[in-house]
Amino acid sequence: MLDAAKVYKELELVMPRVFSVAYQERELARELWYALNSDPLLLNKVLSDESAYRLPHWSGKLDQTSLVKPYGGSYQVVSVDGSQIYPDRHQGFPCFLLNMGCVTLRYGMSGSSIILNTIPRLFLQEPQEPGDGGIDMSQDGVNCRRTEQELAHGYYVSKEAVNNVRDIPTVFLCDGSLIFWHLEQKDPAAKRYFLDKYLESFEAFYQARIPIAGYISMPKSRELVYLLKVAATYSHPGSNLTYVVDRDICSLFLEPFYISTVFKNSSSISTLYPSHLAPYAVYCCLPEEIARIEFPAWVVELGYLPQLLEIIVDQCLKGRGYPVALAEAHEQAVVKGVDRATFYQLLSQISRGHSQQFAMSNKSLKKKTIGI
């Protein structure tokens, strides 16, 4: 049991020092940012520096901004979010459950409407075959499968929405990044398998011309910070920017309802995307926060970006700071403790019906009883 009084004392000892360092770093970031934007020679030095940092790419001025107004016409937005019941070795049966929460919101026309649905899917332990991705029962493996299912179901629901209503814009929103950072440390076979699956869904969205975007609330990205870290080597060698993230920098120049210039990500995983699916991003200043919005290259190249951003801003206003579609999809997907208990009860009933019994560990049984 957590002792709140002891935790408070620990925080009192540590946090003042953290606050002080964080303040100093933000002031240094402010100085470096304004130097980069006022000194073309320094910016050129940074961009030509052969550093270990993967610096972003952009066109035009680094601190360029654009106003985005909420979309005023009819549109529909689709979102799919996933939740899971991870494999539990104490329950005695090697499986996991993914639950997809799907939502389609329509605005305008003769009014507004909402379509909600959940899609549960069970995955069993199966023999691994090299290169096929197999069924990895680790939490990391389950998370990879969840992303695969979110994108696949997202395309299916989006396509269905377009077929039902063809004369209004349709967009698909993901909760989180379109850059698959979690694959960077995977073994080559699993990395290739899941990346192919993810990009297969991306390609389907492209072929159907359904814009897709990843919305990241309170982003911790540091692409702009990397620019400052390289700049610091010329004027403040040895300095740190540990506590600074991109949204701290964006707060220096973004006003509410303005977006940054478009940045192209250059991480190692992004280089594996086909050029038309390569991940791009903007930072958007909303009344409650600065969000990062990611989208494939084709969304920019084919002119879908302005409308997409207007729809996202409208969703954030309707959701009081967070896109309504994402919030509703999460509510549909979430698996609570009682749901988990129900799942294992159903599993037990079915196993008994087939004259089977999967033994639970003593630890699991003990948690169901109280005793000293």
Task: Write up what this structure looks like.
The protein has a domain at 74-215 and 265-280 and 291-333: Nucleotidyltransferase, domain 5 (2-Layer Sandwich), CATH 3.30.420. Helix content is 43%, strand content 19%. It has helices spanning 4-38, 40-48, 139-164, 188-208, 223-235, 246-250, 297-301, 305-318, 324-333, 337-353, 362-367, and strands spanning 65-67, 75-85, 95-107, 113-124, 170-175, 212-216, 258-260, 263-264, 279-285, 290-296. Strands 4-3-2-5-6-10-9-8 form an 8-stranded mixed β-sheet. A hairpin with a 5-residue loop joins strand 3 (95-107) and strand 4 (113-124). It is globular.
What key attributes describe this structure?
372 residues; 19% strand; two-stranded antiparallel sheet; alpha+beta; Nucleotidyltransferase, domain 5
Number of strands: 10
Tell me, what's the shape?
A: globular
For the sheet with most strands, the description reads: 8 strands, mixed
Gap between N and C termini: 16 Å
CATH top level assignment of the domain at 74-215 and 265-280 and 291-333: Alpha Beta
Tally of helical segments: 11
Which series of helices and strands comes N to C?
HHEEEEHEHEHHEEEEHHHHH
Helices and strands: which structural class?
alpha+beta
